Amino acid sequence: MRQVVLEIADIKVFRNKRQTLKIENLSISAGEIVAIIGPNGAGKSTLLQLINMHLSYKTGKMVLFGEDVAGADKQSLRRRSSMVFQETMLLDDTVFNNVALALRFRGLPEREIKEKVTKALADFHCAHLTTRMAGNLSGGEAQRVCLARALVYEPELLLLDEPFAALDSPTRNTLLAELRLVAIARGTTVMLVSHNFNDVLYFAERAVVLQEGCIVQDDTPEVILRRPVNAIIASLIEMDNVLPCQVEKQGDDILVQLANGVYFPWTGQKWQGATVCCLPGDALYIFDEQLVYQYNSLMAMEGIVSQVVPGIGMYRIMVETQGLSLTMRVPREQVTSRVAIGMQLKIAFNPGDVQLV
Ligand SMILES: Nc1ncnc2c1ncn2[C@@H]1O[C@H](COP(=O)(O)OP(=O)(O)O)[C@@H](O)[C@H]1O
Ligand SMILES: [Mg+2]
């Protein structure tokens, strides 16, 4: 079994007398790569500051690297983790000296410092920046140096608070890929706060969703992508179709009715109080007879194609169905051969792919 790096139980954090965090239970194991997502103000940064022991808590318990934080020597615990922010906060000095700083604090011999700094800079492909002044670096270069600085003393836990939010998307992707490789190679546990769900899908194997200070979902990014717990999280992850609906019990059946009049039987769990039907765009199909054999329950409807948005692999098609606009994601070859703006299109979905919230 993997060692537990972090365990939080029943912790409440107050800021300006307002409760900003209420974590009933969170456990992170060694080597996990976890994303923290949630709307603005949900408490993501607060959670990282709590873990970094920059905030006190009123009730509950936090165990970090096997030690109860309440009675621990925080300075020595803090040396086992490292934090990176969006603001790079590099000193007005050379790249080498910036990265070497934490090792000098620890009193390592200069020969060992040189070895470790050289390796950390090489890990993030910035060996060529060693003698440059930190103030003259580009945004991407500065963030690479920050990662090298954060990892040079081999922390067990790396806390990242939207470190790449200000970078362009190719730079961000490259940095995420490099960081992932380094973290896996070193066995470093990573907690990444990000508001970009594509980054999360790419980077993390687990995502913890915060809303109003509470964990509302904790699962693989793929499950969160298809089965968000509520409409706010659905729009946060850019769910294609977040459709108002009515759910009614009729005799022994439960029926879900959409705003365009289409209704379908519900056989899943958790329908009481549901007002929204989430449907990923790739769960809507252009109807053909083959589909009927593929799925035993299929809901079909007619609509007019209002927009076709090209993409790599998948195209997005917007279809108007009786006042309800639906977004489909359809393989490119199907679109180019069968779809044009203004045409009537029969489409279908499998109710099993619907998430009611
Ligand atoms: N330094 C602070 N002092 C008081 N309240 C704060 C402070 N920082 C954040 N907050 C409040 O705590 C809540 C959570 O903020 P934060 O953790 O920064 O959210 P997120 O990172 O998810 O956007 C918000 O309501 C915010 O206004
Ligand atoms: Mg934040």
Structural features, described:
It is a single chain. By secondary structure, the protein is α+β, with helices and mostly antiparallel strands. The chain has two domains: 4-231, P-loop containing nucleotide triphosphate hydrolases (Rossmann fold), CATH 3.40.50; 239-356, RNA polymerase II/Efflux pump adaptor protein, barrel-sandwich hybrid domain (OB fold (Dihydrolipoamide Acetyltransferase, E2P), Beta Barrel). It has eleven helices and 20 strands. It has helices at 44-51, 74-78, 95-105, 110-123, 139-151, 169-186, 197-203, 221-226, 231-236, 289-294, 332-338, and strands at 4-15, 18-29, 33-37, 61-64, 67-68, 81-85, 157-161, 189-193, 206-211, 214-219, 241-250, 253-258, 263-265, 276-279, 284-286, 299-309, 314-321, 324-331, 344-349, 355-356. A six-stranded mixed beta sheet has the order 6-7-8-3-9-10, sandwiched between helices. Helix 3 packs parallel to helix 5 (139-151) and helix 4 (110-123) packs across helix 5. 34% of the residues are buried. The mean pLDDT is 94. It binds adenosine-5'-diphosphate and magnesium ion (MG). The site of magnesium ion (MG) has 2 residues, from helix 1.
Radius of gyration: 25 Å
Structural class: alpha+beta
Assembly state of the chains shown: single chain
Distinct small molecules: adenosine-5'-diphosphate, magnesium ion
| CATH architectural grouping of the largest domain | 3-Layer(aba) Sandwich
CATH superfamily of the largest domain: P-loop containing nucleotide triphosphate hydrolases
Q: Summarize model confidence as the mean pLDDT.
A: 94
What amount of the residues lies in strands?
25-35%
Mass-distribution shape: globular
Contiguous low-pLDDT stretches (5 residues minimum) are none
- Tally the beta strands: 20
Number of helices: 11
CATH-defined topology of the largest domain: Rossmann fold
Strand order of the largest sheet: 6-7-8-3-9-10
